[in-house]
Write a structure and sequence with these properties.
By secondary structure, the chain is an alpha/beta fold. It has 7 helices and 11 strands. A 7-stranded mixed sheet has the order 3-2-1-4-5-11-10, sandwiched between helices. It has a 4-stranded antiparallel sheet with strand order 6-7-8-9.
């Protein structure tokens, strides 16, 4: 079940403002060019920033997400008319043949169980043409990024001012849970979204990719979060 900030229409509508500048997505677009990909499957597309950007750049895009409210936001963006959006789990997009599969942001870490993670890797493998690539990022547990996650900020959005506070509620590695609270100044509404991410280490991620039939070509540091995240580039033989 996706977190409330993806599934609730009011929260999905302010997600892009609260999430801030997505310079990490520019790196994915650059990587698509580096790999020569002309077709893309974006798993966990959320509000569609990468999907619409890639489609605008001339890439054939299929994007899937289980949160209908987020996909509705995506469909209103420039370039969305060129994207095939699907509401549902990753496997709902199959059968599919693409040259690149992506999981941006925290997407790879929302699959908490080993079975869930193996399943989504299997979907990615099935969707890729031979020689195609899977690219995703994952936070390094040793960086302990969650220690800086307790925050409170105020954002100006199309829906008015919103105060957003975040607090970590549990750290039981590999799982970290946190609560994000949204207070809308316009009417005083308060909405809370509970989240949990799985912090798999590099060895576990590499083992999972190998078990799913991928060859690991490269592991890079995320350009927007050096020392905090790794970007995995894996190839279907």
């Amino acid at each position: 079940m996706p977190d409330l900030h993806f599934t609730h229409p009011r929260l999905a509508a302010v997600y892009d403002v609260v999430d801030g500048e997505r310079s990490d997505l520019l790196a994915y677009l650059s990587l698509a060019g580096e790999l020569g990909a002309t077709s893309l499957f974006d798993i966990g597309c959320g509000t569609g920033s990468l999907a619409c950007g890639a489609a605008t750049a001339g890439i054939a895009v299929t994007a899937v997400d289980p949160a209908a409210a987020s996909v509705e936001v995506a469909r209103a963006k420039a370039g969305a008319e060129k994207v095939r959006f699907i509401v549902g789990p990753a496997g709902a997009a199959l059968p599919l043949e693409v040259e690149l599969v992506t999981m941006t942001g925290n997407v790879a870490q929302v699959f908490l169980g080993d079975e869930e993670w193996s399943e989504v890797l299997g979907v990615a493998h099935q969707a890729l043409t031979p020689g195609g690539h899977l690219v995703f990022e994952s936070r390094q547990p040793e960086a302990r990024a969650w220690e800086a996650w307790t925050t409170r900020e105020r954002f100006e959005t199309a829906a008015g001012a919103v105060e957003v506070s975040r607090e970590v509620t549990a750290v039981k590695l590999p799982f970290v849970s946190f609560l994000t609270t949204y207070r809308f100044e316009e009417d005083g509404a308060v909405l809370c979204s509970a989240s949990t991410l799985c912090f798999r280490d590099r060895q576990e991620l590499e083992a999972g990719l190998a078990a799913a039939g991928f060859d690991i070509e490269e592991v890079r540091e995320a350009p927007d979060r050096p020392g905090l995240e790794l970007v995995f580039i894996a190839r279907r033989p």
